[in-house]
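Final report, Chapter 2: Outcomes

The project's central promise was a pipeline that accepts a single protein chain and returns its three-dimensional structure in a standardized token representation, suitable for archiving and comparison. That pipeline is now operational. To close this chapter, we reproduce one record exactly as it appears in the project archive, with the input sequence first and the structure output second.
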Amino acid sequence: MADDIRAKDAQGFGWDASDPKKSLEAVKAVVEQEGADAIGWYWRAKRWKRLCSRGIQFLALSLTAAAAIFPIVVQIFGLRNIDSGLWASLLVGVAAALLGLDKAFGFSSGWTRYVLTATSMTKQLHDFRMDWIAMAAAADSNPKPEQQAAMVQRAKDFIAAIQGMVLQETKDWATEFQNNMAQMEKDLKSQLENLKMQMDKADQEKKDADKPGAIELTVTNADKTDGYTFDVDMEGKGGSAKATVQNCKVWPHLEVKPGQYTLYLTAKWNGTAVRTSKIVHVKPGATEEVSVPIPLEQ
């Protein structure tokens, strides 16, 4: 059997005017072999595409089903340490990648195309053989020139039809391949743009999350303390600060890292030290306004 569908050298292929019947049989044998070789090539070539297509479709279907079943299994068996959503997303992603691979390399579409082409060629071969038999039966024992011409023309039409199918299938493959590559390039470009946008967004969110805020503390009854004075001691993972505020009820503190802080307030009232505290949550880029009275009357 032939390894490809290129035209083969036809040994003994020619025309012997002294024996037209033998020449016609040689023509028939050559064109039949060309057709059979082409048909055989497509039937053999479709095998690998069929295996790849079925394998990919089976795996994609199995992975998709597993993605739907996996979270249920996790719930039933109480596997709390397993992130079912993450695994389900991974399974669906792999299934989608397999389908993309099938589309990019044309396994399923090529399988279908090869089967249709081989089937059409087989029909052409059967038609040629039946037409040849009919023409041979109608011809004289020594075919007349017009009968010879008709039979040669029928052989030519058959070969032209076979080669036309090969050409059309090749054009379909080339068109599909170019379209798939163009679509892959478009999808890849889109994915890269989306990835860049996500990275930029993540960077911006990180910057926003790290953007310092501020605290504006108001001690509502600071004017009643001894000397109109109070002390502030701020503690938190983002830093600490201490201050003594006189003749003012407000203590502003800028450039505070986002996070939770505790404000400890100390003052004197009638010579006695009094204290209180307040928990403050500083948000990125925000000013937290806090009003706290010191418990002077105890």
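Archive annotation: The chain has two domains: 20-208, 213-292.
This record, like all others produced under the grant, will remain available to the consortium after the project formally closes.
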